[in-house]
Design the sequence.
């Protein structure tokens, strides 16, 4: 009998100790596209499948400020622990029924953070030149991957346009208490906890993005996102990783 998928939990589960690190995610824009689960299944690590809501899974483009990374029990890491990031992510569920996210790309401003994230957790961090501009309530996020070859750039402007929003789709996309990642020949689950995201409905006033295509998602960025939201942010804590189970038969 297949293992049931855990329900979408608005309140975070308890995070087993020892905790690993803490950080804040601020000025967060969420841009999402609904896609056929089979279109992205091949991009997920072994042992996890696309998580689905009403027949669709989602691709997220999420630019934000990451602030005050600290090894739990210690002070924030100076300079390297605070940076801009833009990630491309999918939504996953493993054979135990745990929901999570899978990062396909994580553009980040600090080379030291890129190196640490790749070495310690196997996360797909890429060093990038990045910027964030405030104009009223609007945020404009820019990124350019620093690598040989043709440039890969992203420029997104998001403006909150409505009151707080907290429906089934918002909970599906943001009530995620861990991530799945392929590392050292296995699929790992890295749990985290944070308060419920305070979300506002938003509009994408500008979208010129190459990160989605560079992550293997073709021309998805050529069409408007199906859902856009903005959050002032949350504080997050990460726990010790465990192995994800083997794929379902």
Sequence:
């Amino acid at each position: 009998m297949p293992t049931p998928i855990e329900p979408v939990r608005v309140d975070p589960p308890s995070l087993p100790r020892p905790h690993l690190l803490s950080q804040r995610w601020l000025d967060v824009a969420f841009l999402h596209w609904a896609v056929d689960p089979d279109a992205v299944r091949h991009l997920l690590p072994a042992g996890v499948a696309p998580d689905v809501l009403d027949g669709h899974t989602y691709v997220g483009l999420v630019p934000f400020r990451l602030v005050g990374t600290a090894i739990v029990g210690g002070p924030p890491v100076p300079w390297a622990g605070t940076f801009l990031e833009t990630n491309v992510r999918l939504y996953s569920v493993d054979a135990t029924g745990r929901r999570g996210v899978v990062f396909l790309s994580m553009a980040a401003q600090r080379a030291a953070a890129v190196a640490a994230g790749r070495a310690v957790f196997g996360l797909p961090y890429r060093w990038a030149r990045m910027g964030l501009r405030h104009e009223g309530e609007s945020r404009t996020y820019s990124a350019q991957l620093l690598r040989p070859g043709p440039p890969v750039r992203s420029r997104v402007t998001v403006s909150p346009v409505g009151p707080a929003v907290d429906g089934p789709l918002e909970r599906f996309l943001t009530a995620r208490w861990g991530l799945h990642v392929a590392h050292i020949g296995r699929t790992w689950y890295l749990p985290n906890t944070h308060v419920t995201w305070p979300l506002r409905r938003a509009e994408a006033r500008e979208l010129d993005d190459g990160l989605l295509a560079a992550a293997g998602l073709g021309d998805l960025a050529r069409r408007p996102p199906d859902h856009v939201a903005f959050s002032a942010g949350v504080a997050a804590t990460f726990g010790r990783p465990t192995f994800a189970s083997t794929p379902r038969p």
